[in-house]
Amino acid sequence: MGALFGQVVNRSPETQFIFSLVQLLLAGLSLLVLLRQLRTARADETETSDSRLLLGLLLLALQFGLHAWYFGLGFFFHQELVWPGIERLAHGLGACGFLVIATTFISAPQGRKAEFVQCSIGACLALAGVLVIDILVPWPALSFGEHSVAMVFSDALILIVAATVPAVVLLVKRNDWRAHAVVLACLIVVFLLHLGSLFVWPRFEILAWGAEQLALVVLLLALAWAVGEHSRDLLDRVFVRLNLTFIVLASLILLVTTGMEKLQYLRLAEERSMDLAEFLRGHVIYYRARGETLDVMFRRPDVLRRVVVEFGTLPELREVRVSLDGRSMSFRYSPDGEVTEDVMPIAQRNAAEREAGPGDSFRMIELPIETGADPGNRVDLVGTMDYVNAYIGRYIILIYSLFTFMVGLATAVIGIIITDAERQRRRQYAELQETHQRLAQAAKLASIGELAGGMAHEINTPMTSILSLATHLTEARAVASLTPDQRKSLDVMATQAQRASRIVGNLLTFARQSRLELSRVDVGELLEMAIGLVHYRLDHGTVRIDREIDENLPFVLADAGRVTEVFVNLLNNAIDAMPTGGTLVVRACVKRDGQTRIRVEVTDTGCGISPDDLPRIFDPFFTTKQPGHGTGLGLSISHSIVKDHGGEIWVKSSPGAGATLVVTLPTGGEVT
Fold it and tell me: What pTM was computed for the model?
C-alpha cells in the first residue's frame, strides 16, 4: 500500500497531468454553471459579486489549462517547453484568480461600494503588474525553491487576505456564509501547504506537493458545489452533482490504476533484469579477484555480447552501469540502436544525474556487488518509461472518454426528465390556479347569493306595499282631481315599483330561494318558446336567426320555466351584442362522452368579449351594457339555474369574433 501511495503522489508527468486536468474540469464546471446563471438572472442583486467570481474562475481555468497543456505535451508527445517563464505565468494567473475569488466574499461597506470596488480592483491590478514584471524580468529564484521573490510575495498576500475574509464572513453571516467559510478554509490550507513546501526537507517535498494538490481539488469541489447549490434551477444542481461525481470517480480510478500499473510494471522490469544484473555482478567479482580493472572487464567479448543482447531482449532497458572502487562504467542504448560507453568517477556521474533530474527514466534494479561492502559498488540497470507511459496515456484517454460519454448521456436523460417534470409542474400550477379561480368564483357567488336572499326578503315587503298603494291610487276615483303631471308621476312610480319588484324576484331566484318544479321537458320545445318570446326584437330584420336543432332530442328532467328563462337570457344577450345586425345561431344536439347530455349553443356575430371580462361575466351585477340597459343578473341567474339542474354553462369568445354561450343538461335528470 505504501508503494502504491508513493506512485500516486510521486509528481510524475502523468500524475501532474491528471491533477491539472481534474482542476481544469472543476474550474470549468463552476465557470459553465455561473455563466448560465448570469445569463438567466442578469438583473439579480448578486450580479456584481458573481461577475468577480466569474473573472476569478476564468483566471484559474487558464492556469490549470496551461498546466494541463504543459504536462500533457511532455507526457503524450515527449516534448518540453523551453520557456522558463511558463511556471511564473501559471502561478500569476492562479494568484490573481484566487485573490479575486477571495474579494467576492467581502461585502462593501454601507454607502462606500464604489470606493471598495476601486480598492479591490487597484489591489488586483497592482498584484498583476508585479507578476507581469516577474515574468518579463528573469529575477533569480530563492535558494530554498524555484519561487521568485514576487511569487512568494503574492502567495503571502493571498494568505493574508484569505485569513482576514473569514472574520468578515462570520461577522456578517449571510444566508450562504457556511459555503463561503468552507471555500475560504480550503484556500487557507492550500496556500499554507504551498508556502510550507518551500521550507520542508527534500525527502518530504513530494508529500507536501501531493497534500497541496489534494487540498486544491477539495477547494475547487467546494466552490463548484457552492455555485451549483446557489442556483435556483434544479437542472443546474443536478448537472453539478452529476459532474462532480463523474470527475471524482474518474480521477480516483485514474490515479489508482495508473499507480498500480506503474508499480506492477516496475516489479516486472526488476524481475526481468535480475538475470543480467546477476551475470554482471558475478563477472565483476570473478575478474576483480584476478586483479582486472573495470575497463578491462567490460571489454571482454562475452560481457559485451551479453549486454548488447539484453538491450534487444529488454525493450525498456536504456543503460547498464557498474560502479566499482570510485569508478563508474556505463553502456547506453539510444533510440536509433547505437550503443555507447563511457567511464568516469562516481562523484562526477552522481553530480550529472542530480543536475539532469530523473526525466522519463527509472531504476530497474540496483544490486550491490558484495553484501556489507562499500554501497557505492553496485550494478544499476536504468530503463525508460516510454512504454508504460504510452499504455497509461491510452488508458487515461479511454477512461475519460467513457466517463464523458456516460455523464453526457446521463445528463441528457436527466435533463429530459427534469424538463418534462418542469413542464408538467407548470401545467399543474396553471390548472391549480384555474381551479383556485373557479373556487373563488363559486365562493363569491355563494356569498353574494346569501346576501341577495337576505336583501330580497328585506326589500320585498316595503316594495310590495309601495306597489300596492301606487296601483290603488292610479285606479282610485281621486285620480281625477290630480293634474296631468301628478298622474304621470304616479304612473312612473307604479312602473318603477314593478321594475324593482322584478329585480327583487330575480335576486330571490339567484339566491335559490324558490323550489324547482321538475317535469319531463323537451329542450327543443323550450328553445322554440324562448325564441318566440324574444321574436319581437327581431321584427326590424337586422338580426337573422338560424336554427340547428336536432330532432327527437331526449327528454330532460327540469323546471320548464327556469330553463326557458335561461334560454331567454342567452338570446337577449346575443341580440344586445349585435346592435347593428348579424346572425344568431341556436344549436341543440346530443353529446355522449361517458354521460348522455343535451348541448345547447347560442352563437352571435357581435363584438365578442374581451379576455379581461371573460372571468367576470357570471358575476352578479357585472355588465358591459350602458347604464339602465341591464342589471347584470341575467347570466348570474342563468348560471345558478343550470347548476341547480346538474348542468354546465360556459362561454367561448374572442374580441371581434362574436361569442358562443354553451349549456349542457344531463338527460338522466340529476338534480343538485
Answer: 0.58
